[in-house]
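Hey, can you fold this one?
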Amino acid sequence: MGIKGLSSYIQARSEKCLENFKLHNSDIVIDGSNLLHFLYLACPKQNACFGGDYNIFCDYVREIFRLLKKCNIKAIVIFDGGMDVGDRKQKTRLLRAKQKIVASIKVKPSNQHRMSVLPLLLKIAFLTVLKEFNVEIVQCQYEADGDLASLARGLKCPIVSNDSDFYVMDVVVIPLSLMELTGAVKCNDGFAIQCKIFYMTNFLRFIGHEDASIFPLMGTLLGNDYADKKLFENIFSQIHLPKSKSMNDQHRKLQGLLEWLKGQTVEEAIDRILMFVKKIYHIEVEVAIRTSLNAYKDENNGHMNSVIDLREKVVTSLMKEGLPEWFCSLYADADIPPWVLEVMLSHKMPYQSQVEAVGSSNSFCCCSDLLKAIALICWDSQIDCQLRTLWRKNSELVFKNLTISRLDFLVTLPGLSSVGAMKLQERQQLLFDIILDKNIGRVLELPTKWQLVFATVIHWIRHSHCRVRSYHVDGLVVGLIYLSMVEPRIGRVRSLKRLENNANKAKDDSMVDYVNMAKNTFKLQEIAERMLSHDINFDRDIVHVLAEFQATFYFAQTLNRVLDSGLPCASPSEFYWGTFINNAVCLFKGYDRLSLAEKLFSGTTSVLFKTFQQYTEIVYELAPSNLMNWVPHGPNKPIKRTKKPKGKPTTVEQMSSSSEEESTMNDSDVELVGNRFKLLTFT
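Sure. Predicted structure:
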């Protein structure tokens, strides 16, 4: 619920509004969602267009938290929850969902540095790193701003965030974007991070206001999640706005409001605002103002003296909703995604996005059965119910009602109240029965942390809407072997010359197989130079098929957490490197699979080759026979651009229909979001 333009307004005047500060020997309360977005966009050498380079991101996050530890900074990370009080943020959420769709279907190598597309499994990977560093984590039931402020007041420490809302609360703020996270500086008692810090007293002195009581009203007039700025457009024509060319329109409005609101109480200002509004809109405008002010007031009250207090608050609140204590604890620890709570209590599923091909069906269609299983277990009901979901259909955002019945499953699904009484072995068996339809094969012969991953692979192959082929699976398994077996032994390879030196030293060493594989797959780690300038060489269809795998794993892991099965599972950073896997898939598409694997692993006697054979055989035993129905096309060749023939349909007109599931839906099941023609009827 940020105040638009306030962060950039303050940072542009940092010499007067902010102070230089050396952060060390201190607690900090971090806005978790804000930190996740910031670190992902700041992380170098990753390619968003391939669906997620999780290993590179996690290494970067580790560097940041090692820096905090070096400076004796204790980080407390608080995440937003899944519930929205009174659907007050519904319009904002729909707008963001539409923006995600545009980014997810348009991102490509040449524009990925300009488009924000967060990989689907990013938060899972992020939380894994936080737990490695024993960071205290709490996931709230609702938006976390108020709880963040309360905890920061109680602990008397700063909040770290780029969210402008905190500037109008009674807290000390360190803008995340103004922290120098490249390294520590020496100070009198150790090391510190150079940053800038915001104190309300300095800002009030700069703008000439006596207190901050008027700021929530200013945020409302500029437009936030609770009030549409169009309601207040007439006001800005009645007040003096500065004509400085160095300011953008938003900063001019903000500066004008600061001057106009000087010396007024909140009630006096509201009365003056209503004078500029037509009488027929008085009630609507006043309700919008009061609602927004109450939201700020709720967030700006209270003190919380410890993380334990906040966690107990979340658990107690959820238990009042009738949820079992073990489930509430998992949720508060962020082991269960926040949308599960929304599915459970509101029967709504928010939009999930990742890089996809616009002409293919939504990548989540192939695992909708897992979503239905999660919903049925959480609802604890024996009757059929409907789940209102948001999906992508081509380039449109649509509402879709899923009818969910226990009769759709081969296994008997327990309710959440019964799960707690089940033994761990029974829960794990139920997990695999749901994912693999009671046909588990030799999956349990795999190392424990890979069992869920490969069960996901098999489900993906069986239910894909895009025809998974063996080269997709082989590329995925090669990436898994590299990240889990090779990189832990030889480290991240950044130079081929250094790698060749290591290979020469390792001739008589047990490391030779690992160094040789790193050498043979070195080119798979980076995006091809030609692809950066010629997007026609970017195979979005491969990315989309792999996105189906990620979607399946996401729901399978969520089901694992909802059942609290106790089954350990590898982090995405241990098996999914989007750039590497995409290049490996393209390579396997051109050659005989076993011949190519033999070259990559330097012979059939290599332990890596034997591992590859073992893993793929377990998958192929349970996979449909059409997995091998393709012919290698030989080495990849650069694709040349050709002019489109005149008079032929455009690519958009030739797009294939959505998945069978989407194409068979009734019109009553689908409703375009924001479609201005949806009220028209045809006769």
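The first strand starts at residue 18 and ends at 23. Let me know if you want another pass with a different chain boundary.
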